[in-house]
């Protein structure tokens, strides 16, 4: 009986200790407007935006990569495999005759086709079967890729990437593919600005 009672006391003490820690944590995470000292609030904001504030509103045109290797939607599957084998690409944009982004092929799709015999039964879907029989880029690509416009800001593209967990986003202008921007591009720019401000 005594052991059970002391156990409950220990549990209560532990719970109280945890709730105090949570209160301290939530106090430290209060928005600056809730803090008493306006200088503290200002310093809090500065620490968050230092290095990134200056580039949040810059257009992605300044950061994106323009020299893209693309593949035509009529290109044979073997040509697609060859491009992935020779180059360190994660994705390959597929364009139509007008230069518009028609789709994207990634390494997962390539491996799925090349290693179809090793694929678990659960993943053997009609789409996987159809792709394995595809003869050109159009028949194996992911359709309706996400794009962002050329005049979008760094803030716009970072929001899109973080909310949807994209590593890279293609950039279009008047429907045509003009570039690509990746998380690495954003990190490099923000770090560069932080060094300049230090």
TrEMBL record:
Domain CBS: 64-123, 141-196
Sorted UniProt keywords: Amino-acid biosynthesis, CBS domain, Methionine biosynthesis
Region spans: Disordered: 1-39
Regions of compositional bias (Basic and acidic residues) in chain numbering: 7-39
Superkingdom as given in the UniProt entry: Archaea
InterPro entries: CBS_dom (IPR000644), CBS_dom_sf (IPR046342), Diverse_CBS-Domain (IPR051257)
GO biological process terms on file: methionine biosynthetic process
PANTHER family from the UniProt entry: CBS DOMAIN-CONTAINING PROTEIN CBSX3, MITOCHONDRIAL, REGULATORY PROTEIN
Stated name of the protein: CBS domain-containing protein
Taxonomic source organism: Methanosarcina mazei S-6
């Amino acid at each position: 009986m005594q052991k059970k009672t002391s156990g409950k006391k220990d549990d209560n003490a532990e719970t109280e200790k945890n709730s105090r820690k949570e209160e301290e944590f939530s106090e430290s995470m209060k928005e600056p407007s809730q803090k008493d000292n306006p200088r503290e609030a200002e310093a809090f904001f500065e620490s968050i935006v230092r290095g990134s504030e200056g580039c949040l509103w810059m257009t992605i045109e300044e950061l994106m990569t323009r020299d893209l290797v693309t593949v035509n939607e009529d290109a044979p599957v073997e040509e697609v495999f060859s491009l992935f084998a020779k180059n360190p690409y994660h994705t390959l944009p597929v364009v139509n005759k007008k230069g518009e982004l028609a789709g994207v092929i990634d390494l997962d799709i390539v491996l799925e086709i090349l290693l179809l015999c090793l694929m678990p039964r659960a993943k053997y879907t009609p789409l996987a079967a159809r792709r394995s029989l595809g003869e050109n880029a159009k028949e194996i690509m992911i359709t309706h890729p996400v794009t962002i416009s050329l005049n979008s800001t760094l803030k716009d593209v970072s929001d899109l990437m973080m909310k949807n967990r994209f590593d890279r986003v293609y950039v279009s202008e008047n429907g045509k593919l003009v570039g690509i921007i990746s998380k690495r591009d954003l990190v490099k720019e923000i770090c560069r600005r932080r060094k300049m401000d230090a």
